[in-house]
Amino acid sequence: MARKTGSHAEITGPAIRAAALSLFARSGYAAVSMREIAGEVGVRAGALYLYTPDKQTLLFDLLRDHMEHLLGAWADAKSGTTPVERLEVFVRFHIDYHLDRSDQVFLSYMELRNLTDANFQSIETLRRTYEDELQAILADGLDSGDFTLADVRVSTMALIAMLNGVLTWYREGGRLSRDHLQGIYWNMARGMVGA
Amino acid sequence: MARKTGSHAEITGPAIRAAALSLFARSGYAAVSMREIAGEVGVRAGALYLYTPDKQTLLFDLLRDHMEHLLGAWADAKSGTTPVERLEVFVRFHIDYHLDRSDQVFLSYMELRNLTDANFQSIETLRRTYEDELQAILADGLDSGDFTLADVRVSTMALIAMLNGVLTWYREGGRLSRDHLQGIYWNMARGMVGA
DNA sequence: GTCTATATGCTGATAGAC
DNA sequence: GTCTATCAGCATATAGAC
């Protein structure tokens, strides 16, 4: 039954977060005003403060939810027995996730510097946890002799940077299908780690 | 002979640009005020407008000068006859340049969205010119059979993203020397292109 | 060349009516 | 739950004194 009052808590809350995500991703946190976000949602600026104590918390909640969702999705997706299999799963998962949630991903590495120190540390911990998942795969592959690489940490950072880069240029519906793209990146990743 | 007037045009102009570069890199263009820049230089906000028509132009000039300097430095540094040699020179040059001018490089891919459309197009053209230098090396190596790669454009973007990533984590004076770092990245790059 | 003073407008956030 | 009205402060940029 649709309610007849002016109450829209279940709608407005998520709408505010969606609008903030989209606007922050497009223009940057510092360049977006609370009035703009409210305008996108269809309410006045004051109404936003029923859903967030302040603008900083709005950003932080977006980043924290993203990181937690990413870690949960990876926990569900991770599979494979050999390091090579597990690396391939990681590469394909990472690309899929980044293309499906490009705004969240983009935000989460563009707006880190606009977090307060405490909030930044909190996000950094989550991000490091995700990096460690890849690092563990590489370390296992180095031990088992499946991979040939000079430095596990450097390879981890290089792989993540390479994969993140997809966001800066790939557009769905263009020359390359997503599956084809993943295949190309998986080949490059394999070459990077000497598999 | 030192002049005795209050005129400091030769000092203040560059100082403004240096302060803007540093502050924009640390906090982001939108979050930095003209007053902050002036404060860093030791003048009042109004004095900045003797050196730049507005804040937008100040940002644009920093990015344009960076890109032009990068292209000039690469023109001086590029060498090697075989594609493999030329790729190694590129990898080492790119890392050196990025570590030597990390603020400029960081700015030039964090603040693109704060440029006006016309200014953005201008910077994009320069950036694409640089990318094309790497892309030409890969295309030559593919033709000659020195490289094995599925897609020249994808490999170009992947290599650049991987190399840019150095900025996000490498700190001079740490566990790895710069030369060691370059060697590791060169090995990974070689693996990526099947050389 | 730099200063002070100022214009005009937008900012994040709050108080109280409905 | 949302609105209107408002606060105090800071933004970019300019004008005119020195």
Task: Provide the CATH architecture of the largest domain in chain A.
Answer: Orthogonal Bundle
The fold-level CATH name of the largest domain in chain A is Tetracycline Repressor, domain 2
Low-confidence stretches of chain A: none
Strand content of chain A: under 5%
**Rounded radius of gyration of chain A (Å):** 20 Å
Oligomer: homodimer
Give an overview in words.
The structure is a homodimer of 195-residue chains. Chain A is mainly alpha-helical and 195 residues long. Chain A has 2 domains: 1-52, Homeodomain-like (Arc Repressor Mutant, subunit A), CATH 1.10.10; 55-192, Tetracycline Repressor, domain 2 (Orthogonal Bundle). Chain A is built from 10 helices and no strands. The longest helix of chain A has 28 residues, at 117-144. The model of chain A has no long low-confidence stretch (mean pLDDT 95). Chain A binds chain B through residues 26-28, 30-31, 110, 113-114, 149-151, 154-155, 157-162, 164-166, 168-169, 176, 181, 183-185, 187-188, 191-194, and chain B through 26-28, 30-31, 110, 113-114, 149-151, 154-155, 157-162, 164-166, 168-169, 176, 181, 183-185, 187-188, 191-194. Chain A binds a DNA duplex (18 and 18 nucleotides) through residues 5-9, 12, 33-35, 43-50, 54-55.
